[in-house]
């Protein structure tokens, strides 16, 4: 039975950047890598409009003049390019101001979200701290072993004689402790992600907003803006603020439909993270230190990848043990690290990603053995 690719013959391109250090740099990278419009609608393709989503800036979402000017100047015609702002955070704020009952329900659910996140963070930080202590002790006693060696060790002693070097017993014991802790972290991640999803479902049911004419009208306008643009560009900021508008207006899957229609999407930092299945954050500068953890469920446009922006600053890529632990914890996704000039281009092709490094810094992919593969600009990324 013949089956065509549901993403179409000419889907849009997804471009992920680590952390463009300024608005000018963000615009420069996006303009250089987005390319001409491939929208399947002829009129939309000719209009070649850019839609900016600065929802990650929260209340200052519409203070976007510098971003819009940058993209407008990139137009190929003498009039410049048409640029607009999605304004999804502002739309949500206005809706809530006109629906006080819904606003009260929203605040209740936000309070529950904060409590869920706080208790999950406490569990996560304690488990990671325990894992680090076990690994440090193992490094003292069995310095020749890597994190990957231990996580790949069988639960039971390997086949052998009844008497053997006692280090075999130590290796198995340390391996079982580390593997159990990584499994506990992965299970807690899934439990937390599920709880967050259930909370949003409950809010929509409790508020009944899908049946509100104002909500329907606002959502229709937002959908029309996304699906008639040639490109959607998403700067960094707060991932939570970026995602909340999409959840509020039940637009999690609009980005997938946009790419199917030939619309390209460029996201940097939070804008790149939120396009994946999970948003993973890390802050070792805080007091107390905040370990890698799930902040939110993403928009699930980019399946199969875990994006780590600011990778050199935040992931300790020179430490193979850290890379092996992260790859084991997020085991059902390839771990991709991006820096200021890194841009990973993803094109849907036959149910897989055709991945290319198209920025001016390397794209980094790391796996369970603790290895780190660097892909310079122009290289095909084969680990995805």
Helix and strand composition category:
alpha/beta
Topology pattern, helix = H, strand = E: EHHEHEHHHHHEHHEHEEEHHEEEEE
- Ranges where pLDDT stays below 50 over 5 or more residues in a row are none
What is the number of helical segments per DSSP (H or I, 4+ residues)? 13
Mean pLDDT: 92
Helical fraction equals 40-55%
Strand content: 15-25%
Termini, distance in Å? Answer: 28 Å
Shape: globular
- State the strand order across the main sheet: 3-2-4-5-1-10-11
Strand count, sense and barrel status of the largest sheet are: 7 strands, mixed
User: Whole-number radius of gyration?
Assistant: 23 Å
E-strand count: 13
Please tag this protein with its features.
globular; single chain; seven-stranded mixed β-sheet; 46% helix; 13 helices; alpha/beta; four-stranded mixed β-sheet; 384 residues
Describe the structure in your own words.
- This protein has 13 helices and 13 strands.
- It is of the alpha/beta class and 384 residues long.
- Helices cover 46% and strands 16% of the residues.
- The chain is globular, with a radius of gyration of 23 Å.
Short description:
The protein is an alpha/beta fold. The chain contains 13 helices and 13 strands. The chain has helices at residues 23-34, 42-47, 65-72, 88-98, 100-141, 147-151, 167-207, 213-227, 239-248, 254-260, 270-273, 311-314, 320-329; strands at residues 14-17, 50-52, 83-85, 231-234, 264-268, 278-283, 290-297, 305-308, 334-337, 343-349, 352-357, 363-366, 372-375.
């Amino acid at each position: 039975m013949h089956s065509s690719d549901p993403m179409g013959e000419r889907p849009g391109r997804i471009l992920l950047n680590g952390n463009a250090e300024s608005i000018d740099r963000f615009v420069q990278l996006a303009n250089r890598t987005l390319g001409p419009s491939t929208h399947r609608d002829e009129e939309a393709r000719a209009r070649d409009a850019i839609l900016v989503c600065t929802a990650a800036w929260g209340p200052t979402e519409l203070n976007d003049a510098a971003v819009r000017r940058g993209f407008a100047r990139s137009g190929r015609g003498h009039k410049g390019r048409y640029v607009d702002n999605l304004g999804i955070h502002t739309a949500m704020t206005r809706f809530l101001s006109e629906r006080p009952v819904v606003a009260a329900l929203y605040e209740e659910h936000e309070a529950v979200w904060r409590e869920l996140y706080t208790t999950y963070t406490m569990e996560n930080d304690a488990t990671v701290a325990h894992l680090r202590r076990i690994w440090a002790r193992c490094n003292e006693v069995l310095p020749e072993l890597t994190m990957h060696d231990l996580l790949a060790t069988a639960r039971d002693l390997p086949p052998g004689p009844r008497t053997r070097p006692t280090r075999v017993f130590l290796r198995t014991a340390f391996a079982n402790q580390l593997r159990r802790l990584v499994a506990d972290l992965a299970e807690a991640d899934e439990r937390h992600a599920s709880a967050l999803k259930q909370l949003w479902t409950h809010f929509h049911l409790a508020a009944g907003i899908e049946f509100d004419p104002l909500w329907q009208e606002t959502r229709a306008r937002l959908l029309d803006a996304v699906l008639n643009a040639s490109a959607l560009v998403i700067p960094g900021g707060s991932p939570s603020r970026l995602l909340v508008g999409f959840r509020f207006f039940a637009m999690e899957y609009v980005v997938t439909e946009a790419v199917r229609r030939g619309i390209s999407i460029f996201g940097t930092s939070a804008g790149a993270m939120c396009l994946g299945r999970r948003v993973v954050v890390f802050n070792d500068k805080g007091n107390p230190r905040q370990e890698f953890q799930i902040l939110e469920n993403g928009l699930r446009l980019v399946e199969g990848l875990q994006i780590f922006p600011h990778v050199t600053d935040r992931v300790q890529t020179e430490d193979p043990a850290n890379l092996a632990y992260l790859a084991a914890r997020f085991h059902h996704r390839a771990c991709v690290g991006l820096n200021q000039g890194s841009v990973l281009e993803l094109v849907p092709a036959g149910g897989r990603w055709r991945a290319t490094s198209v920025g001016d810094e390397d794209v980094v992919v790391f796996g369970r053995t603790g290895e780190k593969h660097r892909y310079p600009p122009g290289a095909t990324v084969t680990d995805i």
